[in-house]
Amino acid sequence: MSDPILVLSGVSKTYKNGFEALKGVDLSIRRGEIFALLGPNGAGKTTLISAVCGIVSFTGGTITVGGHDNRRDYKAARAMIGLVPQELTTDAFETVWDTVSFTRGLFGKPRNDAVVERTLRDLSLWEKKDSKIMTLSGGMKRRVLIAKALAHEPELLFLDEPTAGVDVTLRRDMWEVVRRLRENGTTIILTTHYIEEAEEMADRVGVIARGQLLLVEEKSRLMEKLGHKELILTLDAPLSALPPALDDRGLHLGADGTTIVHTYDTNAPRTGIATLIADLSRENIRIRDLETRQSSLEEIFVGLVSDNGAAPKEARS
């Protein structure tokens, strides 16, 4: 396995007022992966990105990018990073071509029209190359920000809430852009409130709350390890209430009385399904149909941040 492109060791950030924005964060990012960092507002996502990019100083720990310490060798570390901020900050009166070309120069890269053209074409911006930024739609402006971040050919790209304020269609277009970037060898770290983005695109998921990294896990293993399944039983006839004999089974009767929901741990040695069906039969409850449903990543995420003192509603914002 190749060396990780980004390593954070014990990174902390404490402001003068005593607020701890980051608390001993350890994180290693593999080359070529898409890593989704999930967390509610105020969790520390943007602070972490800003520390890596050198926008804010961090109090303790070390950060290396491609083997370069981002304090001792800041220029080399920063040159490997592209950052797409959450806010749409572009020069409204510049053309798409000029703003992307200028950004390349900011990193000391020589003029290379072929790189700029390829970047604009990859992001479906070529037809807009002579348009002023102010004339573009929100989705196109977001693409311009990505083009600016890629202009100096970074190996590591941060996308901070890349689809905030973007409609569903443009969001899916953006997902396609991210996949193409990864195919071209770019490592991507994505922060998002949209759980479906992580579920759709990420190889690994990290969850952060109150400045602490709660877990880092392969997405599929996270779903398997923490997920639960629901068995949904559709009944032949509605029930007004569950029989007393089933009170200790943790079952949920649907509002109309026609369904019973049984939640079980996918990793448990026994799911209890066979016993449940036998118990229902003894109570003369006939089952017309049954189906199972896997917990979503959103449900797992809300449960994690709730357990660590963050309000679940924040996770859905």
Brief overview, please?
This protein has 317 residues and is α/β, with parallel strands linked by helices. Helix content is 33%, strand content 27%. The C terminus is likely disordered.
Describe the protein.
This protein is α/β, with parallel strands linked by helices. 33% of the residues lie in helices and 27% in strands. The strands form 3 sheets. The chain has a 6-stranded mixed beta sheet, sandwiched between helices. Helix 3 runs parallel beside helix 5 (138-150). The longest helix is centred in the middle third of the chain and has 16 residues, at 168-183. It is elongated and about 80 Å long. The two termini are 37 Å apart. This is ABC transporter ATP-binding protein.
Assigned CATH superfamily of the domain at 6-80 and 155-224: P-loop containing nucleotide triphosphate hydrolases
Low-confidence stretches: 310-317
Structural class: alpha/beta
Strand order of the largest sheet: 6-7-8-3-9-10
Separation of termini?
37 Å
| Overall radius of gyration | 24 Å
Gross morphology: elongated
Share of residues in helices: 25-40%
CATH topology (fold) name of the domain at 6-80 and 155-224 = Rossmann fold
Tell me which CATH architecture of the domain at 6-80 and 155-224 applies here: 3-Layer(aba) Sandwich
